[in-house]
Amino acid sequence: MIELKKLRKVYRSLRGGRCVALNDIDLKLPDTGLVFIIGKSGSGKSTLLNLLGGLDTITDGDIIADGNSLASFGRQDFEKYRSSYIGFVFQHYYLLEELTVAENVRLAMSIVGKDDEDEVKRLLDKVGLSGFEKRYPRELSGGQQQRVAIARALAKDPKLILGDELTGNLDHKTSVEILTVLKEISKEKLVVVVSHNLDEADMF
Ligand code: ADP
Ligand code: MG
Question: pTM for this structure?
Answer without folding.
Answer: 0.95
